[in-house]
Amino acid sequence: MSRAPAIAATGLVKVYPGGVVANDGVSLRVEPGSIHAVVGENGAGKTTLMNLLYGMEQPTAGEIRIHGEPVAFRSPHDAIARGVGMVHQHFMLFPSLTVAENIVLGREPHRFGRLDRREAAARVADLAERHRLPIDPLARVGDLPVGLQQRVEILKTLYRGAEIIILDEPTAVLTPQESDELLAVMRHLADQGKTILFISHKLAEVLAVSDRITVLRGGRVVGERERAETDMDELATLMVGRLPAPPATFRREPGAPALRVERLWVRGPRGEPAVQGVTFTVRRGEIVGIAGVAGNGQSELIGALTGLVPAAEGRILLDGQDITRLSVRERRAAGMAHIPEDRYRWGSAREASVADTAAMGPHYRPPLSRRGLIDRSAWLRRAAAIVAEYRVRTPGLWARAGALSGGNLQKLVVGRELAGDAHCLIVAEPSRGVDLAAAAFIHDQLLARRERGDAILLVSADLGELMALSDRILVMYEGRIVGEVARDQADERQIGLWMAGADLPAGDPPGDPASAQQGGDAGA
Amino acid sequence: MPDRLTEGLIDLLRPLLAVLLGLAVGAVAIWATGHPVGEAYAALWNGAFGNRTFLGSTLARSSTIALAGLGVAVAFRAGALNLGGEGQLALGGLAAALFTIYVPLPGPLPLVAGLLAGAAGGALWALLPAWLEVRFRVQLLISSLLLNYVAVYSASYLVSVPFRDLSGGGALAQTRLIPEAARIALLPGTRMHAGILITLALSLVLWFVMMRTVTGYEWRMTGLNPDFARYGGVDRVRALVTAMLVSGAVAGLGGAIEVMAVYHRYIDGNLTRPGFAWSGLMAALLADNHPLGVLLAAFLLGVIQVGSTGMERTTQIPLEISSVVQAVIVLFVSVRIGADLLRRFRGRRAARG
Ligand SMILES: Nc1ncnc2c1ncn2[C@@H]1O[C@H](COP(=O)(O)OP(=O)(O)OP(=O)(O)O)[C@@H](O)[C@H]1O
Ligand SMILES: [Mg+2]
């Protein structure tokens, strides 16, 4: 080996306050100019490892060398100075500033003591060109889709001179097309000599793009493979010790209508009509999937269904009862449960305990409380049951929710919402950030609820997930339902076209094109 | 493995640590002004605990600080940044005085009625900023703070003009004495009064409410993440209003007890000049809004405040030394809160995988 490895970590140990050993002697070697993937089940210690390399956390023991030089980062600032950049799963951008402003922030070009906007835009345009990451430097970041916001984050690390770029689950929030683009970008950056280190739960993309793969389990490295010498089965086995069972089959036929949405209009955060006259029905024992590029009204639709956002116009019926004006609690009492798309914003509070997180929703009524008094043992029993059933890795029921790994918190939130006997489930991105086994388990649970006769609305950016679970898929574009297709006729290409807002193609689109085009009055 | 118990202990020790730090810096200040440190702190100790009278004053003051602090703690836990303690305390005291003076009741009822009137006065006044926030989105932090002036000057006017006691020549802006039956008993020869028992009981009750009742759970979750609470079906308005009512009631009770036990009348400025509300805020922040911790923090602040008046009496050291000590404590609290915010901000950027 002539060149020193870009990253050489030896014997990294990280013990969090509270005693959790998140990394337990991890050694990692990343060659310069390569793409290196880190995989492993939820709570394996992947994010922790990245945070150590980026100076976000300090190792309890062990050594890190960057390009052969030993380093002791006390903050990300130190890491950036050594050419290490990181793109977090939640972006750190200012939505009201332009792309260029976001990128140069902290290292702005000045002219007569003022920010030189033209110079900033020129530099960003040049940077984007060199790295083949096309973007409009003058666009407002808040107006960009998630995929492009991520691109801004990557450009930001490049602008600061990153030679090593760390990405934590970069594709978890992307649509399939955006994911493909990102993988191409990563490849191109590596060809230019940058070193890429990334985390993913999606083994297919890991195998498609990386040169080398490290498998973590319980805070230790349990395997390290060249891409050529491994396959999905082996990786999955290394990660979890077993392969998830194939998804259950569909037996039951859908029954009577449960959730009915009639000509629903909902305003977005800036008052714009985000949902425009949407009509559809979800029947008992049916999973209806909603496909669409993020930001086409799905969030507002979910908000209106669950009572978090008022409906501007139209009606929502649950079992024939008009629930349009009911409060969140009344809807929950009427049998609705809600797996939120953002587990941090809606699904939990970082400083709340696992037990308090697990109680939210039915906390005010038996068995969790009586006459306004909390029944502590019922409270703990419920949390313990969810933790056990969903294999949530947590130091205890009193641990802070924020101390759980991303996937484990997701499992806790999903478990909480599926713990009750709700018969109408509003489910958004249920397997975001969870590992293969947990995703399969969650899918099984949803299918079991379908067989039991529950009505499920499933919103997901993951087309594979939608196709595996849904009886029917509706496609949302710019606030409207522009297409509908039944599961046995689902055609990825067609759905992709609808998602992109392409005009309906010639020939017979699957499903019922007439009703679909008029806003998809499906299933009634 | 560190568990909740040790974490809880550390929480409780924090006020102590802050006070020790404050005393250490105070020692430097005393030394720098050329006074003997040992003698000064001996005088402070003596001023706070030296005899029954001093001890009684210390406990009485701590008790009122604690009530003001408990009020703050309840509101802050629910995410309502109630800085209106001063006004709530003053109006609680005034309500207790006026009610017991002008509404004659038989037997021991005046005592109960006075306390209830005080609580109601504070609670109703606290409702105003809550309403402004819900109805007009006026920041509660700002409105509650500004309303202090309205409350304090209104009370001032009321006891200066319409309700002024003119019996003794009317030299002072104060009400008449409240009836005997409305006075809270003092331990003979001291200022220590039975209201302290109310404070102790109340802090336990509030701890219980916060940790073991549905209302407390909803307050806490609203305070930690209002979106999460809303998502779970918590009515934000209800949580805000109930938390402010309880917060104001507790502060109002503090004013009522001060009036009914110590002065037996509402004297203009007596509830504001000692800075009970601000000491209470400090106690709540020191204790991280933990009801039992507030007791400890309030006690320590009471010791410093009463002890340093004793120190001034018996040594040449000016009262301002106590301000130095308290300023350091405030600094300690702010640094900690700042670090906390920073950690949360960093935490948000990190590790969302
Ligand atoms: N700030 C923290 N305080 C205490 N424990 C923590 C903290 N962050 C993570 N942990 C614990 O460390 C372990 C590893 O967490 P980490 O976030 O590194 O997992 P991960 O591999 O990224 O998992 P996922 O795939 O779910 O994102 C988990 O058991 C988690 O509970
Ligand atoms: Mg992670």
Question: What keywords describe this structure?
Answer:
heterodimer, A: 524 residues, alpha/beta, Rossmann fold, 3 domains, 6-stranded mixed sheet, 17 helices, 24 strands, globular, disordered C terminus, B: 353 residues, mainly alpha, ABC transporter involved in vitamin B12 uptake, BtuC, 75% helix, binds adenosine-5'-triphosphate, binds magnesium ion
What does this entry look like structurally?
The complex is a heterodimer of chains A (524) and B (353). Chain A is of the alpha/beta class. Helix content of chain A is 32%, strand content 25%. Chain A contains 17 helices and 24 strands. In chain A, strands 6-9-10-3-11-12 form a 6-stranded mixed sheet, sandwiched between helices. A 6-stranded mixed sheet of chain A has the order 18-21-22-15-23-24, with helices on both faces. Chain A has a 4-stranded antiparallel sheet with strand order 2-1-4-5, with helices on one face. The C terminus of chain A is likely disordered. By secondary structure, chain B is mainly alpha-helical. Chain B has one domain: ABC transporter involved in vitamin B12 uptake, BtuC. Chain B is built from 13 helices and no strands. In chain B, α1 packs parallel to α12 and α1 packs across α13. The longest helix of chain B is centred in the C-terminal third of the chain and has 30 residues. Chain B is globular. Classes of the chains: A alpha/beta (524), B mainly alpha (353). The interface between A and B is large, with 53 and 32 residues. The site of adenosine-5'-triphosphate (ATP) has 21 residues of chain A, from α1 and α13.
